[in-house]
Amino acid sequence: MQSSAAQSKKVSFRAKETTICPICEYGHFREQMFQGGGRLIAGKITKELRRLYEKNKKFGRINPNDYLLTVCPKCLYTAFPKDWNTLQPAEMERIKSTIGERKVNLEKILGPVDFNQDRNLISGAASFLLAIDCYQNRLPYIAPTPKKAVCCLKSAWYFDDLHNEFPSLGYDKVRDFLYQKASGWYQSTLEIMQTGVEPVDTAAQILGPDTDNNWGFDGVIYLNAYLSLKFKDQLASTTEKQVEMLSKAKRMLAKLYGSGKSSKSKPSVLLDIARELYDELGEVIKTLNGEN
């Protein structure tokens, strides 16, 4: 058993209970992050609602997102812990039939990744790519659309970090593709919130999009507007469609900050960036309409 001194130098630990994969029945000990001990040094929150963390002199790079997803090291089935065992036969069959394809696609982008080893920047990025792939094969009862949106956005963050670390490997192209996919799924999530096609409420605890502040449904509204503006040219082929898309996002954003007064559920940091984005959307819509 490790001494407390040895543990104090580690970022993560292995769970005592074995996690059995429902797809291939492989057993592994899930890695989890230690809490406290001065490991996390929180930095600023970006306009994408991402919390940045400073590099720790003692522990090095630490990112809580590395440990959010459960990944089978053998067949690469991936899910949030809550969804790990909630599989219907049709889902199991789909995920089982795509094992080989999943492994090949991952290696094309990131090379071989060993999930028996401790998580790092590469395996963190890989876990969210795998989650997107697996949630593509899940049925509406677990609300896969908002989960794909969040995983896609987080994956884009990882590939941005990878591009900064290895600028010559083309990770920026993967990052931009993931941002665009995230934008589409955030739009779909917003529609689902209104139609009830998927039980989005069951995904509220992971909507985040980050780990320290769960902005929940307000975050979905904000990120839909942010990503719609950022990728308007890719998402809408004509000026008319862009105006329609951005105007809809702007109306939803207005509901987000309402009176403009901060509260526990709507802290000032979210209201401030939502208001800035609202004004920016207004200017872009004017320009697209030829009013400037």
For this entry, give a set of tags.
292 residues; 2 domains; two-stranded antiparallel ribbon; 50% helix
Largest sheet: 2 strands, antiparallel
Q: Structural class, judged by helices and strands?
A: mainly alpha
What's the shape? globular
Q: What's the N-to-C terminus distance?
A: 69 Å
Mean pLDDT: 90
Instruction: Please tally the β strands and state the result.
Output: 8
Query: How many H/I helical runs?
Result: 10
* Spatial ordering of strands, largest sheet: 1-4
Order of helices and strands: HEEEEEEEEHHHHHHHHH
- Summed up, the domain count is 2
- What is the strand content? 5-15%
State the helicity in percent bands.
Answer: 40-55%
* Unreliable spans: 1-6
Rg: 20 Å
Descriptive overview:
It is a single chain. 35% of the residues are buried. The longest helix is centred in the middle third of the chain and has 25 residues, at 171-195. The protein has 2 domains: 10-235, no CATH class; 236-292. Mean pLDDT is 90; it is low at 1-6. It has helices spanning 4-7, 89-97, 99-110, 121-135, 144-165, 171-195, 216-230, 232-235, 239-257, 268-288, and strands spanning 12-14, 19-20, 27-28, 31-33, 42-45, 51-53, 70-71, 78-79. It is globular, with a radius of gyration of 20 Å. It contains 10 helices and 8 strands. It is mainly alpha-helical.
Helix and strand topology:
Layout: H1 4-7, E1 12-14, E2 19-20, E3 27-28, E4 31-33, E5 42-45, E6 51-53, E7 70-71, E8 78-79, H2 89-97, H3 99-110, H4 121-135, H5 144-165, H6 171-195, H7 216-230, H8 232-235, H9 239-257, H10 268-288
Helix pairs in contact: 4-5, 5-6, 6-7, 7-9, 7-10, 9-10
